[in-house]
Specification:
This protein is of the alpha+beta class. The chain has 2 helices and 5 strands, in the order βααββββ. It has a 5-stranded mixed sheet.
């Protein structure tokens, strides 16, 4: 599947200092995943004592990244 970033996601990861490569790594190899109330996937991965969370949806054959952030 292809990974596509929304404009919102591009802006947010840039502001938060999260690389696109890191987002892709979290999606491909998450430590955990869950389905949000609005049907979005939320995946998490611990990296260097931080937890990165990525929110995305699957649209046809694409992962559409909605946002990414450092969680708890």
């Amino acid at each position: 599947m292809k990974i596509v970033f929304t404009n919102h996601a591009k802006y947010r990861i840039m502001k938060r200092g999260i690389s696109a490569v890191l987002v892709k790594n979290v999606i491909k190899n998450p430590d955990s995943q869950s389905l949000s109330e609005n049907g979005m996937m939320v995946v998490r991965k611990s990296i260097e004592r931080k937890v990165i969370e990525v929110v995305y949806k699957v649209d046809r054959s694409n992962y559409v990244i909605i946002t990414a952030y450092y969680g708890n």
